[in-house]
Amino acid sequence: MRHILHADLDAFYASVEQLDNPELRGKPVVVGGSPTTRGVVAAASYEARAFGIRSAMPMHTAMQRCPQAVRVSPRFDRYHEVSGQVMEVFRDITLLIEPLSLDEAFLDVTDRVGPDVSPESIAAGLRRRVAEEIGLTISVGVATSKSVAKIASDMDKPDGLTIVPPGTERDFLAPLPVRKLWGIGPKASERLVAEGIETIGDLARMPEDWFAAWFGKNGAMMRELALGHDDRPVVVSRETKSVSAETTLPQDTGSPDMLNELIARLSQRVAHQLAGADLQGRTVKLKLRLSDYTTFTRQTTLSQPEDSADVISAVASSLLERELHPGRRFRLIGVGVSGFDHHDDDSEYRPVQGRLIGF
Q1: Which residue in the list 98, 104, 169, 306 is annotated as catalytic?
Q2: Is 88 a catalytic residue?
């Protein structure tokens, strides 16, 4: 029997800001771009969430909902630093760690459990150490599988601990909204609810052929997850697939000079991230969003791996040149690099600084 923890730092970016600036503690804090430049909320403290503020919300909407909120610009280098400190605590508990992002990870503590050591006590010790050594709260779910542990960690936030005893997985999942199940997004959830399938228990009662019709090749897996079955292992080593950076423009523009200047800045950020992760890539990608929200990417593959900001910028600018047409205006631009050569299969996973954006 496996014992899996899912550990998830509470309102991570906002909590780090409150940790570093005691004057922000107890106040509604939003981390993100300016409300006057199409900024979005990257994170919101629980005090801000009480006003209905959520991640990815336009910043101007967030400030309308809570005019007294304190807006803080993101400090990704600092968040990466604190994440590393938390991961060190995790590594003191087990080396079987699968980071999902800077603020959450799975831990397989099966080998640590014994007659005198329960998974509950391990989770409680983890939460205590993060609070005492780092000053942040973390919510933990404990279960026999990754999917159930992840759902459990979200049940009692912030600073929560939810245990799902072995054999009770299906009963635990049954009353929960179907959207809680891993792999079911907002649109799929709406469709299922429209069909009268409102809970995970409702979903679990559907026949196998129904799952195949609804989820295609993923049908069998989705049925197993709904039943509380999940044999996927904690994956210790994970390869970074892409590194990228993007920005939403203050105003739509078709100016080649302005767009190329943004490409140069974004390429510097990407190069910094590549250097921090000791990566070089062969594929340079350019992401563009037009004023009508049409979004597309263009890419080219180089003859050899690169991490140079100048090379990345030059290639991205050449991709942009082909998309500059009279009257065409852009509201978002992004630069990314992929196609990495991973030579060290035993290397430890390291979260990359800044935003990891899947083109």
Answers
A1: 104
A2: no
